[in-house]
Amino acid sequence: xxxxxxxxxxxxxxxxxxxxxxxxxxxxxxxxxxxxxxxxxxxxxxxxxxxxxxxxxxxxxxxxxxxxxxxxxxxxxxxxxxxxxxxxxxxxxxxxxxxxxxxxxxxxxxxxxxxxxxxxxxxxxxxxxxxxxxxxxxxxxxxxxxxxxxxxxxxxxxxxxxxxxxxxxxxxxxxxxxxxxxxxxxxxxxxxxxxxxxxxxxxxxxxxxxxxxxxxxxxxxxxxxxxxxxxxxxxxxxxxxxxxxxxxxxxxxxxxxxxxxxxxxxxxxxxxxxxxxxxxxxxxxxxxxxxx
Length: 292
Fold this sequence. Notes:
Layout: E1 7-12, E2 16-21, E3 27-32, E4 36-41, E5 46-52, E6 58-64, E7 69-74, E8 78-83, E9 89-94, E10 100-105, E11 111-116, E12 121-125, E13 131-136, E14 143-148, E15 155-160, E16 164-169, E17 177-180, E18 186-192, E19 196-201, E20 206-210, E21 215-220, E22 228-234, E23 237-242, E24 247-251, E25 257-261, E26 268-273, E27 278-283, E28 286-291
Antiparallel strand pairs: 1-28, 2-3, 3-4, 4-5, 6-7, 7-8, 8-9, 10-11, 11-12, 12-13, 14-15, 15-16, 16-17, 18-19, 19-20, 20-21, 22-23, 23-24, 24-25, 26-27, 27-28
C-alpha cells in the first residue's frame, strides 16, 4: 500500500483531545485534557504558543482561518475565541448546559457548530454577535462528533452514544435522516465521497452507509480491539483510531486493511488532515504530525 510518511514530528504533552491543522501556516493546534491549547510549528518543530484557556478538559479546538481566530470548547461548557496573531481572548460564552464534545467550523457561512453532552447541537453566528442561529434536538444521549457534508454544506451528520447517527439540514428543525445499526454508542463519523458515510463505535466496528438509502452497506466487525475514537477519509483511504493504541489505514473501495501503525504513545483520540497531505494524530502522551 502506498502510504508512507516522508517526515514525522512528535510533540510530547498531556492527553490530546483534539487536533487541527492550519490551511496556510505550518501550524497544528492541539487541545489538552489539562485545559491547555498549544500551537506547534511542525516545520521548525517548535512550540509557538500555549494558552491555559480553562481549568477543565478542552475537548475540541479549531482554527477559524477566515477570521484569523482560534476557537476552543471545554468541559466548563464555554466556547472561547482567541486571536491567532496576539493569542488574546476575544470572546467567550456559555454555549451548553453540559460538556462540549465537538465543534466544527462551517466552510462558507459564519457559523461555529457545537455538540454537547446536553444532547443538543447548536449553530452560532459570529457575524451577529454569536447569536444562536439554530438548535437541533433529537438525540437521546451525548452527541460525540459531527461532520459537514463537503458536497452539500447545508447538511450535517451527528454521532451519538444513543447508538444512532442523525442527518440534519440547516434551516430545518427536525432530522432529515437517521442511521441505525451500531450495537453501542457511536463516537465518530465522516463523509466518504458523495454517496457514503463511515462511522465508528464502542462496539469496535466501522460501518459504511449509503447516504441516499440510509442503509448500512458494510460492517467491519472487530476492526479494532477497543472503542473506535476517530475516523477520517483522505484520497482513497479511511483512517481510523482507537483506544487500542492503533491507527489503521483502510482502502476505501475494497475496505481492506492496508496498514496499521502503533506509535507507542497510548490511546489514540483524534486526527486532523489537511488537503496537502499533512496528517496529525493525538494520543495520551502527545501528537504526531506526518507528511504523506
